[in-house]
Amino acid sequence: MNTLAGIHHVAVICSDYPVSKHFYTHILGLTVLDENYREARQSYKCDLRLPDGTQLELFSFPGAPQRPSRPEAQGLRHLAFRVADLDEAIAHLADHGVSCEPVRVDEYTSKRFTFFADPDGLPLELYEA
């Protein structure tokens, strides 16, 4: 298939919508494109945009089951964000009470990266590119 042009969006289901919306908008700096409450599903859907145009959809579903992530479960492993300055990004997160794992170096690309978690424990990565 030669028609894939990039990733349009990633969808995340959160347990506490206001907390996760604050995290992704105020701490990570994503921009709200659209936000809707869907009465039939008793669910919010918030479309967020990264600077490169990639989108993250934030959902709230009442009673959604937790997803195991550690030890590494099958399925989506983590979501990685590209950053220009890893140290600056880590400092920004620390200023907001978000801790990161020790910085590692990709053995194949020699690029630096670290992991942190969203309010639901979803593993997120910062990758210096």
Automatic annotation (TrEMBL):
Keywords: Metal-binding. InterPro entries: Fosfomycin_Res_Enzymes (IPR051332), Glyas_Bleomycin-R_OHBP_Dase (IPR029068), Glyas_Fos-R_dOase_dom (IPR004360), VOC_core (IPR037523), YwkD-like_dom (IPR037478). Pfam families: Glyoxalase (PF00903). It comes from the Bacteria. Residues 6-129 form the VOC domain. SUPFAM superfamilies: Glyoxalase/Bleomycin resistance protein/Dihydroxybiphenyl dioxygenase. The keyword Metal-binding applies. PROSITE patterns: VOC. PANTHER family: FOSFOMYCIN RESISTANCE PROTEIN FOSX (PTHR36113:SF6), LYASE, PUTATIVE-RELATED-RELATED (PTHR36113). NCBIfam families: PRK11478.1. This is VOC family protein.
